[in-house]
Amino acid sequence: MTEILIAGAGIGGLTTALALRARGIPATVIERARDVRPLGVGINLLPHAVRELCELGLGDALADIAVAPAAISYYDASGTLLFREPRGIDGGYGHPQYSVHRGELQMLLLSALGPDGVRTGTQLIGFDDDGAHVTVRTSAGDFDAAALVGADGIHSAVRAQLHPGADPLQWSGVRMFRGAAPGEPFLDGRTMAIVKDDAAELVVYRIGGGLTNWVVLLPESEPGPLPGDARWNQPGDRSEVLAHLARWDLGWLDVADLIARTETVLEYPMVDRDPLPWWGAGRVTLLGDAAHPMYPVGANGGSQAIVDARVLADELARDVETGLRRYEDIRGPETADVVAANRAMHHIGTSRPEELARVTADYRRDTNADRSLT
After folding, report:
1. pLDDT average, residue stretch 193-205
2. What are the C-alpha distances in Å from 39 to residues 233, 250, 298, 309, 357?
3. N or C, fewer C-beta in 10 Å, the chain?
4. What is the three-class DSSP state of 117?
């Protein structure tokens, strides 16, 4: 019997397997894709998430593929600095904040887990929990496990079986365009910049491999349930982005050139789901985006999945049956607070430095981001 079976070889699933193995608990990941490839663009990891990866022995390897921003700075569309907030070590934390290509981070975790840690080409079909163990039905046959962890993303099959009722994606009304392009660093090379006017918002930062990662957010409608599918990784129309930024003259970055040099532009709706009243039952639970999908605000999406993994591994090391519920009791309220804080942070409309300072301090408090301060 596999001790713990994890559905999904994303950042959350792979980190969970590594954390379990570090505690002497056998774990296997199943992944429906036949090949796990380094897809996606840049993400940010907060210091408390970096700490967890360092505890797994990945600190040096992570530093080699990432950039550690020293600050996040807010600008208006003329390039004028409004507010600067130190980050990572410069902000007094015990670990850096890292900006990294999502796919490169995934490959790092996969390499650390080893070739026997993931069964690819194995799609979860369903599961049966008899109280003593879980039988997981997949496209490659049945697996028996002491517990099943659904880390299978925002369209989680595990979540759908646990919560078969209405559970719509909630759209912010904003469409995101993302990409990364090679080139020289901007500003000091270690600043994450946020630029905003009435029509668009730009988030731009350096990641490893000499790349500058950018995200443009374009409001389209009022928030509400998402009509249709999320359509992940859909090619985006860069001309639509450029039309909104044509008036910008930042001085320290040629945004139009950056977007024009980007080989692949991707488009996503900014969505989340309302927090669940409970995550799992019996010997089944959820983790990461399967449990608490949230707006990609404040570097908290991947970071929260990594914290999930550590808490779950700690609790399962004490006892499998009761550990699942203890994990949910800890992480459910914490991540619900982050979902709410991300929704509130997304609607910031101020350009006053004193107000930006208050809002960012409130966000750190509401998301418990300062847990790794020295």
Report:
1. 92
2. 9, 30, 21, 21, 34
3. C
4. coil
Neighbours of 221 (CB within 10 A): 11
Strand-strand pairing, 134-138 and 124-129: antiparallel
Alpha carbon 32 to chain centroid, angstroms: 20
Q: Give the number of other CB atoms < 10 A from CB of residue 312.
A: 29
| Residue 366 to residue 369: CA distance in whole angstroms | 8
Residue with tokens 């410069």: 90
Tokens found for residue 54: 């360092």
Bridge-based pairing of strands 170-182 and 266-272 is: antiparallel
Per-residue pLDDT tens over the stretch 72-110: 999 999 999 999 999 999 999 999 999 999 999 999 999
| Interatomic CA distance for residues 367 and 41, integer angstroms | 24
pLDDT value, residue 374: 45
Residue type at 205?
Y
Helices marked H in 92-168: 102-113, 157-162
**What is the distance, to the nearest Å, from the Cα of residue 114 to the centroid of all Cα atoms in its chain?**
23
- Residue 48 three-state SS: helix
From CA 50, how far away is CA 36, in angstroms rounded?
23
Query: In Å, how far are 24, 148, 307, 324 from 318, measured between CA atoms?
Result: 11, 17, 17, 10
Measured between alpha carbons, how far is 292 from 303 in angstroms, rounded to an integer? 12
Q: Among 309, 307, 231, 234, which Cα is nearest to 271's? A: 231
- Predicted TM-score (pTM) of the model is 0.95
For residues 309 and 287, give the distance between their C-alpha atoms in angstroms, rounded to a whole number.
8
Residues 182-212, buried b or exposed e (16+ Cβ, 10 A)? ebeebbeebbbbbbbeeebbbbbbbbbeebb
Structure token digits, residue 318: 């004490």
Three-state DSSP at 291 gives coil
Residue 350 in this model has a pLDDT that exceeds 70: no
